[in-house]
């Protein structure tokens, strides 16, 4: 796959497409001449996004999809093939998060976050990869993880665990694909703090997975820390989209939109290599660090 990936006229599927990174991916893909299948749980925002793209001349459909549900992701794949016949670029992008001390996270927190962040990616891989392989054409999968999949900041236990799972899944997917295909590959997107809807993810939590108990002090502090960090983000979703499409074009696996985080990643690896107890991953980011009490 030495030739650059071509986007014009190809078909892209994007989950979490109605806001944040997903919407930026859709806008960037449209500008490159792609045909789009957009998925999200928010029907209103999804319709607005699809209509805006169509108004600009892009061929696009929207399919309301809860990525936790394997049957709904299967239906998304079918809708894609029914509408466009093929799929060339898949963004497993839908994501949510919670904060607070790990022992204070409820069973509902674990079910919701892992359902979206991990099973959402797994369902996308399971439903679309066989289609891509059977096409025998260039195709690519981008899984959205996070720097929280490379580090383990305090008071983010459920989110960290889910994103570490996405990193492991995607690295394994890369090796698996290398064993069977020269046409299909994947990339791992690990952004840091960017102003998106992730800080307001609770709005999409299903009613049956909402917590009855009030937030603990650590959860309140973690939420404030996240809000502050996201607002302070220097990059925009458009910046992340551009970096991601550049990586797909070049066939790069690791997409780190905030390369300064590599110092913290290196510190973690040194901890492991020297059997040193874990260093606080935010020790190099004092502007973000504010421990919950």
From TrEMBL:
Superkingdom to which the source organism belongs: Bacteria
Pfam families, alphabetized: adh_short
UniProt entry tagged with the keyword rRNA-binding: no
Keywords attached to this entry: Oxidoreductase
Keyword Heme assigned: no
GO molecular function: oxidoreductase activity, acting on the CH-OH group of donors, NAD or NADP as acceptor
Annotated InterPro entries: NAD(P)-bd_dom_sf, SDR_fam
Listed NCBIfam families: PRK06194.1 (NF004843)
PANTHER family: PKSB (PTHR24322), RETINOL DEHYDROGENASE 10 (PTHR24322:SF736)
Family listed: Belongs to the short-chain dehydrogenases/reductases (SDR) family.
Protein name: NADP-dependent 3-hydroxy acid dehydrogenase YdfG
């Amino acid at each position: 796959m030495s030739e650059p990936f071509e986007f014009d006229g190809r078909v892209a599927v994007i989950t979490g497409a109605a806001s944040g990174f997903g919407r930026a991916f859709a806008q960037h893909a449209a500008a490159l001449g792609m045909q789009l299948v957009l998925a999200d749980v928010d029907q209103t925002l999804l319709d607005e996004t699809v209509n805006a793209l169509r108004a600009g001349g892009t061929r696009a459909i929207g399919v309301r999809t809860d990525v936790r549900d394997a049957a709904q992701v299967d239906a998304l794949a079918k809708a894609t093939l029914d509408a466009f016949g093929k799929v060339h670029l898949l963004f497993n992008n839908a994501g949510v998060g919670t904060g607070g001390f790990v022992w204070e996270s409820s069973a509902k927190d674990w079910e919701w976050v892992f359902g979206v962040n991990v099973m959402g990616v797994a369902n996308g891989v399971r439903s679309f990869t066989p289609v891509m392989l059977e096409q025998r054409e260039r195709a690519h999968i981008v899984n959205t993880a996070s720097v929280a999949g490379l580090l383990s900041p305090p008071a983010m236990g459920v989110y960290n665990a889910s994103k570490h799972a996405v990193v492991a899944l995607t690295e394994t997917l890369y090796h698996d694909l290398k064993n069977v295909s020269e046409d299909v590959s994947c990339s791992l997107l690990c952004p840091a703090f960017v102003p998106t809807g992730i800080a307001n993810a609770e709005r999409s939590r299903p009613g049956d997975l909402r917590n009855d108990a009030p937030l603990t002090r650590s959860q309140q502090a973690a939420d404030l820390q996240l809000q502050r960090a996201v607002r302070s983000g220097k990059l925009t979703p458009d910046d992340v989209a551009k970096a991601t499409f550049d990586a797909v074009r070049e066939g790069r696996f690791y997409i780190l939109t905030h390369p300064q985080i590599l110092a913290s990643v290196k510190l973690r690896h040194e901890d492991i290599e020297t059997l040193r107890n874990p260093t606080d991953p935010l020790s190099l980011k004092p502007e973000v660090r504010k421990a919950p009490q």
